[in-house]
Amino acid sequence: MARKQVKSVAGMVAAITGGARGIGKCTAQSLIRRGARVAIGDLDGELAEKTAAELGGNCVAFELDVTDRESFSRFLDRAEKELGPIDVLINNAGIMPIGPLVEETDETAKTLVDINIHGVIFGTKLALERMLPRRSGHIVNIASQAGKAGLPGGATYCATKHAVVGLSEAVRLENIDKGIEVSCVMPAVVNTELGGGLTDTRGVKKLEPEEVAEAIVEAIETNRFDVWVPKSSAGIAVILNLVPRSGREAIARLMKADKVLAEVDEQERAAYEDRAAKSTSETAAGDKTAAQG
Prior knowledge:
The protein is α/β, with parallel strands linked by helices. The protein has a single domain (13-284), classed as Rossmann fold. The protein is built from nine helices and seven strands, in the order βαβαβαβαβαβαβααα. The protein has helices spanning 22-33, 45-55, 69-83, 106-131, 155-174, 209-222, 232-241, 245-255, 266-285; strands at residues 13-17, 37-42, 59-63, 88-91, 137-142, 180-187, 226-229. It has a seven-stranded parallel beta sheet with strand order 3-2-1-4-5-6-7, sandwiched between helices. α5 (155-174) links the parallel β5 (137-142) and β6 (180-187). The chain starts with 12 loop residues before the first strand and ends in an 8-residue tail after the last helix.
């Protein structure tokens, strides 16, 4: 079997949304370590600038609200002015407030859709506008393994991540002969504030953000579309798809996958849920101060 060709990210320009913390920050660090130049965008502009200063001279930071197309366009314009044409866009920003659907406010659902779906759509469109004339570029969309399943306690979140998977597949096929690469990253639970307090799945350890970052960079280097983290999840998914629904649900119960978002440590998760709530209530009020990553 021929080995997959690996391209270097050295000298590339990458833009990362939700880049001030967590997976976004670790991905920026991994790319910079390999010689890329990185622009990070985050709703928390002050934290983004602090992160950029920490990561060094090959990183710049700008305030970004992914739910606002003009803000997203301005972010990419400023990134290109500072660093040059964008080779890679990583749509990483997202929120995950959880709880039973019947208890979820309409405001929360709307903001989940705005950030997790519209933000990715805006970014993808704006990146394509820049990349297609050059017939070169790579778009990385951060979904989740929740984008391949439905987990109690996270109905709307799962819906948004299913949308990211479907969007990524369609965009890949629309541009497959136009020099544009697309990757869809599907991590399990990650040890970040967003993943805090969640129930562990039997047989699947909680990931560190650095592991997801390395998988993202490897996907860019190898032009891989399906990026399961950990890689073993891909095999599990294939097997489960061969099993009838009743069997899949029984396996999910055995692995406690049905408890991941439904039974959480509310105290451990309190700080994140408070920040996610600000992303909803303050967005509605027009005062967007909470981070989206």
